[in-house]
Specification:
The chain is 31% helix and 18% strand. It is an alpha/beta fold. The strands form 8 sheets. It has a 6-stranded mixed β-sheet with strand order 11-16-15-14-12-13, sandwiched between helices. A 5-stranded parallel β-sheet has the order 4-3-2-1-10. A 5-stranded mixed β-sheet has the order 21-29-28-23-24.
């Protein structure tokens, strides 16, 4: 196998990224800086949303720009960046028209500095009709296939560029260790290594062709730092994290992304230990700039500069909020709905509260990013890019990703796959919902409005009907996730009378950010009631979960014969679900999080030994403290696999040397299938309490029935490291347990 560490890839991409900025770019940037007025510099640091320059503002429906408003933004305020849409998805052609109009306006300014446009292409290009939507990050993590992440990101980059957009606010690198959090679906789950691997793969895909090429976009790692760990579980609320935890679980993904050549970074909207990250010079300058070596652009999140005054109460005035953020290290403010930032920053500069050197530092990075993207050479949508929108091959990539994400959690008595000769009842609010298959950032911000989804989008009911024919499918559902008809238990029981099995589709409708805040992880009672009603019929019930986070199902799980975790898998969700249910695809997804049993037992897989123990009194204890409903890495198959014993090139790892870990895997079943081989480690004794297990490497392989393959991992001391009490990443001498597929082996490390 390839070296499992990101070091080599990271270093290569780091040098590649910065080699994209030529010496002539730097000279040109410095020449421009010398010519620019204070107003022009501050304008470059200002980012506004489309509503500011659109006709009728937020009420705009067609995406038309207002020439007078556009002139005010670009010619009067010298705005350097625009983002977002107003209320609905636009055609790629409309995006190109708007980008052209914006750049035409920029050419009327004294220095003709182009505008950079940004969108949130979280799982495909959003806000754009008929763009390709892939599984959300949490589902991509379930695939355990970085190559699919690369393919999806490349597609997203091409479709963004085909629309004239060159900056994507992705990937999300927040570590999903708080399942209540409403942005959990945007994460790669609870594990650091998966987050590092998938995040670096996405960044590589976005810009590896070179940002001047019509197939690439500038990436934006987000949300730095600790955003995904709010104590309350609510979005944009405080986190309380000791620095040792920040460095162990939340910083490594960003460190890897910086090495991978990320162009920009967006900041955490919340605060950590009472300090808003937008005002933290320690995190933005000392850690991000100096320690991690990030040289790209730092952009705020939505309204988060002014919120230092309006929400966080750490600034005594709006101007002080601007001063705090800029001096901490913010280069560009996503204002986004007015020009207040520019006015306040100009005043602060006049009063000597922000130095011109800090302003020049920020503007230099903005100019260099625009040069790296080729905007100074040609700011308009490129003819070579236009043909890359909506290619048929993109749908195949989306289907492959959805297939590999499907995670079979339960298959009692091999109830799955279902026979094509069976008659099934398809029930539940997700059965005829398109939005519940896609989730957030799907053509609109919330993803709920199905008017904007492609006309060929399929529901679960439709794809199952395609498999079995109308005569073998009954339903008791209708369109509209929240339609009361979808929760009628009597209607379900009546419909079940003619069915051999019930496919019950439960979960979550689409949501994004704060509107997705919940106070209870349990599935809502009307859905649980449906499950109980289905079970009461005596028919086998197959539970299909389409959700962005693990909603609690412990009260109904014993009555479910099969459970399929389908996440939010994008355009091809329904097809992938039907293919797994009826055996046309052998499921191979693996949980990227520990599926909790109850709200009071949120224990993560990389737990401490004490979290494994349930102690009643002294010796009266059991080792069942970690007892999720389904553990991290769980995922069943329709075939079976058998692991051999772990083989080691040496039982001792010395200094900077390497050690090869090898294991054989055989498909002992009757179906072809894929299996992810995962290598875990456990430090037996350490200076701080060690984790019981940490994922250190993984590799997905395909096996035909009876076929065997050997998988090898090369590890070094970095693969056994942790953050110690002195906040240093170290590997301590001693013994380590290596674990693969239930097999174990001991090694020792000596410096």
């Amino acid at each position: 196998m390839k070296r499992n560490s990101l070091l080599i890839l990271g270093l290569l991409l780091f040098h590649q990224s910065f080699s994209q900025i030529t010496s002539s770019d730097r000279q040109r940037a410095e020449a421009l800086l010398k010519q620019m007025t204070v107003d022009e510099k501050i304008g470059q640091m200002t980012q506004v949303t489309m509503a500011v320059v659109a006709t009728q503002g937020w009420g705009n429906q067609e995406g038309n720009l207002d020439p007078a408003a556009l002139k005010k933004a670009i010619e009067d305020y010298k705005v350097g960046s625009i983002l977002n849409d107003v209320s609905n998805a636009l055609t790629a052609e409309k995006w190109r028209t708007n980008i052209t109009q914006i750049q035409d306006e920029a050419k009327k300014t004294r220095l003709r500095i182009p505008v950079i446009y940004g969108l949130d292409g979280i799982h495909g290009q959003t806000y754009t009709l008929n763009s390709t939507l892939f599984p959300q990050n949490i589902a991509m993590a379930a695939t355990r296939n970085p190559e699919l992440v690369v393919q999806a990101a490349k597609t997203t980059a091409m479709e963004l560029r085909a629309s004239g957009v060159r900056w994507n606010f992705a990937p999300v690198l927040d570590c999903g260790r708080q399942p209540l959090w409403s942005r959990f679906a945007e994460t790669y789950g609870e594990d650091v290594y998966i987050g590092k691997t998938m995040g670096a793969a996405a960044i590589k895909a976005y810009d590896e062709d070179g940002l001047r090429k019509p197939t690439a976009v500038a990436s934006c790692m987000k949300h730095y730092l600790g955003y995904s760990a709010p104590r309350s579980g609510k979005d944009r609320t405080p986190a309380y994290l000791p620095e040792i935890e920040l460095r162990e679980y939340y910083l490594p993904q960003f460190r890897a992304a910086v090495k991978a050549g990320a162009s920009t970074i967006m900041i955490n909207s919340g605060d950590i230990n009472g300090e808003p990250v937008h005002a933290s010079k320690y995190l933005l300058t000392d850690v991000l700039r100096k320690e991690l070596g990030f040289e790209g652009l730092i952009v705020s999140d939505w309204e988060d500069v002014i919120r230092l005054y309006t929400r966080h109460d750490v600034a005594a005035s709006p101007r002080q909020a601007v001063v705090m953020a800029v001096n901490a290290g913010i280069d560009m403010s996503m204002v986004p709905s007015d020009f207040s930032f520019a006015d306040l920053l100009k005043e602060a500069v006049k009063k000597g509260e922000v130095s011109m050197s800090r302003i020049d530092d920020a503007v230099r990075r903005i100019l260099l990013l625009k040069m790296k993207l080729g905007l100074f050479d040609n700011p308009y949508p490129e003819a070579a890019a236009i043909a890359n929108f909506g290619k048929p091959a993109f749908q195949e990539i989306a289907l492959n990703a959805a297939h590999e994400a499907m995670t079979l959690l339960k298959n009692e008595n091999n109830v799955l796959p279902l026979s094509r000769n069976s008659k099934v009842l398809v029930a539940g609010p997700c059965a005829q919902s398109i939005s519940a298959l896609n989730g957030c950032w799907s053509y609109t911000w919330q993803g709920k409005d199905e008017r904007w989804y492609p006309s060929d989008s399929r529901t679960i009911l439709q794809t199952i009907t395609d498999k079995l024919g109308e005569g073998n499918v009954v339903t008791c559902t209708t369109k509209g996730f929240d339609n009361p008809e979808n929760f009628d238990t009597d209607k379900l029981k009546a419909a079940a009378a003619s069915a051999d099995a019930i496919i019950l589709c439960l979960g979550e409708d689409a949501y994004a950010e704060s509107p997705g805040n919940i106070s209870d992880l349990a599935l809502p009672e009307p859905q649980l009631a449906l499950a109980r009603a289905a079970a009461s019929t005596g028919k086998p019930v197959i539970l299909v979960l389409t959700e962005g986070r693990p909603r609690l199902i412990s009260s109904i799980e014993p009555q479910m014969k099969g459970i399929l975790m389908a996440y939010w898998c994008g355009k091809k969700s329904a097809e992938a679900i039907a293919d797994v249910l009826f055996g046309d695809y052998n499921p191979d997804g693996k949980l990227p999080f520990s599926y909790p049993r109850s709200a009071g037992e949120i224990v993560l897989y990389d737990r401490k030994h004490t979290e494994d123990i349930r102690e009643i009194f002294n010796e009266n204890m059991t080792m069942d403290g970690y007892r999720p409903l389904f553990p991290f890495g769980w995922g069943l198959s329709y075939t079976s696999f058998e692991y051999g014993d772990i083989q080691l090139s040496s039982k001792q790892l010395k200094g900077a040397g390497r050690l090869t870990v090898t294991i054989s895997l055989k498909n002992t079943g009757s179906r072809a299938g894929k299996q992810t081989v995962e290598l875990y480690s456990h430090d037996l004794v350490a200076s701080i309490t060690p984790s019981m297990q940490r994922l250190r490497a993984f590799r997905k392989i395909s096996l035909q029935p009876g076929e065997s393959k050997t998988v090898s991992f090369v590890i070094d001391r970095n693969d056994l490291s942790f953050v110690n009490a002195q906040l240093k990443t170290v590997t301590e001498p001693g013994e380590f347990e290596l674990m693969i597929g239930g097999k174990k082996a001991l090694i020792s490390y000596q410096p």
